[in-house]
Amino acid sequence: MAALKRFALPERPIDNGVRILRPEDVPFLRIPRQSQVDEVLEALSRYPGRSIWRPDSLEYVLVTPWRNRSSVGYLGELAAIRNTEQLIRSAAEQARDLGDTLTIMLDLDEERPAGFYRRAGLLPVERIVTYDLRRGNQRLSPSGRTTFIRADPSREDHLRALMEIDHASFPWLWWNTAEEFAYYDHQPGVELYLGLLDGRPVSYCGFTIFPGWAHLDRIAVTPEIQQKGLGRDTLAFIVNELFRIPVDRIGLSTQELNERSRKLYEASGFRRSPGYDYCLYGIAHKEPALSLVGSAPIV
Predict the structure, then answer these.
(1) Inside any domain, residue 11
(2) Within the chain, what is the greatest distance between any pair of CA atoms?
(3) Strands 102-106 and 123-134, how do they pair?
(4) Cα dist. 192→6, 131, 151, 204, 293 in Å?
(5) Of 28, 58, 193, 205, which has the highest C-beta tally within 10 A?
(6) Residue 109 is part of which domain span?
(7) pLDDT in tens, 145-156
């Protein structure tokens, strides 16, 4: 993984009973497996100064960079029961002091009551909805206007095209960095493609293949040529590629308010799978996150 910018860390306590979690503190934590210990140590090395703990209760919050974004912290592992809200507020306050733009949390594993997020200072950012396509239900045929080639983020021209399409197509929160493209491309089962129109990169897509099924991770089309069928071409390419191999199901997720994408997926045979929906919450520290999330007092 790419190294992130390092900062000088303050020595003072950051809240009543709360301390910055450092590598030398890890042996005191209640971590059951060595593999988890190694993950915590790696996170502390890559993203120092954000993770915190309470030595009196051994509770901790592990903060890692969201999608390899050094200015956006992700509240991932919350090993806390009594002081969870205080630890979240303290982690966000520490991130703000270090100059971060946004601190986020997902309710993937459990959906907590709305009061929990409010007390922790977390505001709703957006809801992510999920879809599913079964073999035989697809309704797309490619037009043949777009050709597709394997994308290689290690090539300067490919990376430039991927970044341009990505940043023009998605809102700030979902932008990929060069580090994220490189990390993603090296994950097991991942395939990444550029779509070309008359030799010009106009779209890209990425998916991950698992035993028996696949997940459509990303699909983007250059905005100035949207509504010309290129999104349908790109989606048809993905579906046809995946159903040529032993895949019986394709899953994907998208923002609830992204009506254009949702209409495309539904018209192509994808059906809602609401059991996998989740919400994203955040504490904004400065622009552009303040415009996206709004602001709430950290109390």
Answers:
(1) no
(2) 64
(3) unpaired
(4) 30, 20, 5, 7, 30
(5) 205
(6) 19-127+279-293
(7) 899 999 999 999
pLDDT tens digits, one per residue of 63-94: 999 999 999 999 999 999 999 999 999 999 99
Let me know if residue 219 belongs to a domain: yes
- 41-56 pLDDT tens trace: 999 999 999 999 999 9
Same domain membership, residue 173 and residue 76: no
Q: Which amino acid is at 216?
A: L
CB 146 within 8 A of CB 196: yes
Decide if 144 is inside a domain.
yes
Q: Return d(Cα 179, Cα 193) in angstroms, integer.
A: 17
Query: Does residue 10 register a pLDDT over 70?
Result: no
What is the reported pTM?
A: 0.87
Q: How confident is the model at residue 295 (pLDDT cuts 50, 70, 90)?
A: low
Higher pLDDT, 225 or 184: 184
Pair (41, 112) in one structural domain = yes
Separation between Cα atoms, residue 176 and residue 88, nearest integer Å: 25
Convert 177-190 into a string of H (helix), E (strand) and C (coil).
Answer: CHHHHHHHHCCCCE
Calculate the alpha carbon distances from 23 to 41, 48, 60 in Å. 6, 9, 13
Same domain, 145 and 253: yes
Average per-residue pLDDT for the chain? 90
CATH of the domain at 142: 3.40.630.30
Tell me if 6 is assigned to some domain.
Answer: no
C-alpha count within 13 angstroms, C-beta hemisphere, residue 114: 1
**Do 258 and 129 touch, CB atoms closer than 8 A?**
no
CA neighbor of 151 nearest in space, from 232, 245, 234, 261: 234
Looking at the fold, whether 150 and 102 belong to one and the same domain comes out as: no
258 and 191 in a single domain? The answer is yes
Counted domains in the chain = 2
Both 287 and 261 in a single domain? no
